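Narrative progress, year one. The postdoctoral researcher (J.K.) led the effort to move from monomer predictions toward full complexes, under supervision of the PI. The following entry was the first complex the group processed end to end, covering 668 residues in total.
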Amino acid sequence: MAVTLKDVAELAGVSRSAVSRTFTVGASVSARTREKVEKAAKSLGYQPSLIARSLATSRTKLIGLVANNFQNPAFLDVFDLFTSELQKRELRPLLVNLSGETSPKKIVDLLRQYSVDGVIVATSTLPTSFATAFQAAGVPVIHTFGKFQANANVHVVGIDNIHCGAMAARTFAERSYQTVALLGGPESATSTQDRATGFLNLATELGLKVAKVCYADNYTYQSGREAMREVLDDARVEAVFCGDDLICMGAMDAARAAGKSIPEDIGFLGFNDIAMAGWDAYSLTTIRQPIRDIIMSSVELVVGMVENPGRSPEIRLFPCSVVDRGSLRPIAKS
Amino acid sequence: MAVTLKDVAELAGVSRSAVSRTFTVGASVSARTREKVEKAAKSLGYQPSLIARSLATSRTKLIGLVANNFQNPAFLDVFDLFTSELQKRELRPLLVNLSGETSPKKIVDLLRQYSVDGVIVATSTLPTSFATAFQAAGVPVIHTFGKFQANANVHVVGIDNIHCGAMAARTFAERSYQTVALLGGPESATSTQDRATGFLNLATELGLKVAKVCYADNYTYQSGREAMREVLDDARVEAVFCGDDLICMGAMDAARAAGKSIPEDIGFLGFNDIAMAGWDAYSLTTIRQPIRDIIMSSVELVVGMVENPGRSPEIRLFPCSVVDRGSLRPIAKS
DNA sequence: AATTTGTTTGCAACCGGTTGCAAAATTTTC
DNA sequence: GAAAATTTTGCAACCGGTTGCAAACAAATT
């Protein structure tokens, strides 16, 4: 069925090696041979088989992307950028949907079977051990959106969640909020923990009163909406820092349903800056993660690791910024 | 580095074939041999290489998913379901991001190089010829969300867009709207054309006046918002049928910004039923595509095609339904 | 023209599995 | 217990490429 090296070689009247070489960049072939081969290949519609090549070279040009948050619009950007960045480099993404599964064992085996050249673990909820499991299996791995820790033994690309938490506290202080609340993402997520830490620490330091601390069960609108009920119990809360835009939008709607207006009665600060944050109905002030930079850098790094596996673990942190829209009152003039 | 068949065979004291057979379901191995092999394999941490297996069997267990609409939240479901359905069957998704590229040539070559077992083209905007290009190259293909046409020569799984367009007209009529507008998705998309046809035909038949017909440039909130301006020019319009929820939400916000209230001054009917349609701020009445069924059926079908390539082209259409929320006035009692 | 140097080419082994076939081992039948 | 039937096993070829090596060729040097 498929046309192979051999067919092309016979038609062109050369050896199989010659054909292989014309399709390998930097190999030694004379102009005349190359021409003959290319002509033959074209006339037969020859396509080299990457599978066979992979077997011989032990490079598959496959990069695994493992994610566990397929329902969050923030991941639309991730998928989009990840696939197009890989495509530029003639690599292919192999998607793994974790959904639930949190033990790395099976996933590592699975990606090893496919002999992926590298893996990007794109999730902010899993512990570092998930990524190191790949490393232990000899698979180059990057933990994108992962928890950054000084003594890293794995590559991490992302943001400093502790710092971002603090940024939220500062944002509230600048706008003279005094009594605030934290409505985090799922409590088990490392990113939630770090943001909470950063937020609570700086809040106390700045003299803010954190009247409520609660967590949504999921990164969803519904969970945010429900979790907000608890915050609404305390009438003193002037502003809420949410662990995720989606959760935040749910929370905003819960507040509105309770008759509060935003930002007059209660302010909201989100996280991620998903597309919907800019919609009129929410006009959400939020902390933006530079997803584009993070993904581009991750892909670059994973490619670098494939070429040079000995590379020592690197942490790449990108700055976040507050995108000012309409869900908080303006900065106090002083 | 990696441990191979040979290593396991030597340790277990059997031939390579024996090892291969214990890892192939339905192959003939005695219990004693199997046991020895499994023990040896475990102790070495052996994982069969799918690449090598693919070369020998010419099955890669890779299914290509080609999409071009990575920014639409509707695709979150698609990615989620697609990956998890494949995973259940021990298959892997290979993602291709079309973004812009509309000529099938390159994409077909690319997926042929990876020898994917099958391809799902998941887009409602491309012509059937895109899918048939795969077919011509001998790759089992399904056009999911594709244009259905009676004399199909390619498998199609999706909805009847003409019928859905008509459903929109009927929905308006039932609620006694008289002057309506169509705000479609990109005009070049086959789905847009079909929905428009169905809508306009039944609208005239039912005596509805379609005062405006216009199209958004993209499946985005922004495009919807802009395109809505043209509709607003005509003050008689009582309700708008939008080609996509995202577009619709942009349009709703444009209407509100112009001081109209929904559904009192103007009604909206969306398409797709993305998660955000259920958010309080929009509470969008919309036509739901059963994405879950469509994807599950597509995966099933592509698997079937891999097993039986001779299968004749099939069209699988799923019914859509109106999800009644708050963006249209209630059905007139009669 | 002979020698040296540098390129191109084909051979053959290899990557890590699968599988048809025939021999060997086991089980069933009489 | 021998013959027949069945199951298990190893051999060796194959899947479609790559690549080290040495032979063949071409160009440069003396």
